[in-house]
Design goal:
Blueprint lengths: L2 H9 L6 H13 L4 H14 L3 H12 L18 E5 L7 H11 L4 E5 L9 H5 L11 H10 L2 E5 L6 H11 L7 H14 L4 E8 L8 H17 L3 E8 L7 E2 L1 H12 L5 H17 L10 H12 L2 H12 L4 H5 L9 E6 L4 E6 L1 H13 L13 E4 L6 E2 L4 E7 L2 H14 E4 L9 E5 L1
Parallel strand pairs: 1-4, 2-3, 4-5
Antiparallel strand pairs: 5-13, 6-9, 7-11, 8-10, 8-12, 9-11
Length: 440
């Protein structure tokens, strides 16, 4: 085959065969196809798109470009491995609560997670707020911990879907990041390589998410569900709202504390509701045979795991197994705390009608709670607690947020940015929904 012929074929809007896609991806990874040809191919895909069949083949080729993990280990063939992926948002600490709940209900959760880059944060960064906790696990521990405890969260291996790493780096500098087939294959290739039998996708939609509109989020969700289904996985996608921070906490240590609160059945209602929703979906997909009766029974299991304390116990076991200080989980006051606490106050009487979520995330990132470059270090102490959400009534002088900062100057800079991110109007405003759509 000739890479130029493949580029021209896609440039002209013709479908590529499975053999052509596999040849191109293999050549790019091994170096026989240079960056400039891969960039031309990516631009052709950006403009001409791909069918579901082509995108599935691309995803599987990217997954097969490196290690294919087998997290099952000693688990029975009847036990399904269910994974969960969020497209990322402000204050999205859902995995920290969902994992222990699902594991406490008897369904093992073995998850490969990443670090944050920019304002959306990463699960690994959040968990590293717990002193001693590590994501660097040998494969033997991953399998053993999954069998014995039922919950393990590890960092992505170096050789997991290397084609994705190469292609994403190229897309980032060639203006092709926004291609739906390339976005979907990037996400799903890592999920397929990690060995999940079923996947619950939490596709965020709004000002604090990559997909700004419902139509964009729906298109991405439908495509990823189609890819997973064609690849033989059970799939559900939830399109959820990200026009304001999820819950209250934004910032690594603060988000760990809020996840612990949720495991006790407390904390912000929107976060609790989403956690229960995602956990029930994972349990539903994890059945040996799907029961058409629906999610009600699994919602009851989720509530029981929280009410009985089993989910929190599971979280403690998980933290201890990965070297974390369990005392700081049992007493969150021992987690890293910022020295400067500053209230952001409402400047007028009215109702919160809009919050620019991205600005909240950027304020936390600039305080050191996120990375602008991959090599930047995270300050786990800093963040924001957003107490006033859309629909909240406030009076002038009421605290709407509380900033946790490392210095007075950083706190004041964040205060100015966060104040500008809030819109308060004299008329009532309805609270925002949590779930927009469920796609199966």
């Amino acid at each position: 085959m000739n890479p130029v012929d493949i580029i021209i074929k896609k440039r002209d809007g013709l479908p590529l065969s499975a053999a052509e896609i596999e040849y191109f991806i293999d050549g790019f990874v091994t170096g026989t196809i240079p960056d400039y040809q891969a960039a031309a191919w990516a631009m052709a895909v950006y403009f001409q798109g791909m069918s579901d069949e082509e995108t599935t083949t691309l995803t599987q080729a990217m997954a097969a470009s490196g290690d294919l993990l087998n997290p099952r280990g000693g688990l029975t063939q009847q036990t399904l491995i269910v994974d969960k992926h969020s497209s990322g948002g402000i204050g999205d600490k859902t995995t920290l609560a969902v994992g222990p709940i699902v594991a406490a209900c008897g369904l093992p959760v073995g998850k490969m997670s990443g670090r944050g880059l920019g304002f959306t944060g990463g699960t690994i960064d959040k968990l590293e707020s717990i002193p001693g906790w590590t994501s660097d696990l040998p494969e033997e521990q991953f399998e053993r911990q999954l069998q014995e405890i039922g919950l393990v969260i590890a960092g992505q291996t170096v050789n997991l879907a290397p084609a994705d790493k190469l292609l994403y780096g190229l897309r980032d500098v060639t203006g092709t990041v926004g291609s739906l087939p390339l976005i979907a294959s990037s996400i799903m290739s890592k999920k397929l390589a990690a060995g999940a039998d079923a996947i619950v996708l939490d596709v965020k939609c709004g000002s604090g998410a990559f997909m700004g509109t419902l139509d964009e989020a729906r298109a991405l969700a439908q495509l990823m569900v189609a890819i997973g289904t064609r690849a033989g996985r059970r799939m559900t996608a939830l399109i959820t709202q990200m026009d304001q921070p999820l819950g209250s906490a934004v910032g690594n240590s603060l988000e760990v504390k809020e996840a612990i609160t949720a495991l006790h059945g407390q904390g912000p209602s929107d976060f609790q509701e989403l956690v229960k929703m995602v956990a029930a979906e994972m349990l539903y997909l994890g059945q040996p045979r799907l029961d058409a009766s629906g999610l009600e029974a699994f919602s009851s299991q989720v509530q029981q795991a929280i009410s009985s304390g089993a989910a929190f116990i599971k979280f403690c076991q998980f933290v201890e197994a990965q070297g974390g200080d369990v005392a700081s989980v049992r007493n969150p006051l021992l987690l890293p705390q910022a020295p400067i606490i500053l209230e952001v106050k409402a400047t007028e009487l009215g109702t919160v009608s809009h919050i620019n979520s991205a600005e909240i995330g950027l304020a936390v990132m600039e305080m050191g709670g996120g990375r602008q470059q991959k090599e930047d270090e995270i300050d786990p102490r800093v963040g924001v607690l957003c107490h006033a959400k859309v629909g909240s009534k406030v009076q002038a002088g009421d605290p709407i947020c509380i900033i946790h900062a490392a210095s007075p100057d950083e706190a004041d800079t964040a205060r100015q940015r966060i104040t500008a991110a809030y819109t308060i109007q004299p008329h009532p405003a309805d609270p925002l929904p949590i779930l927009y759509e469920r796609i199966t």
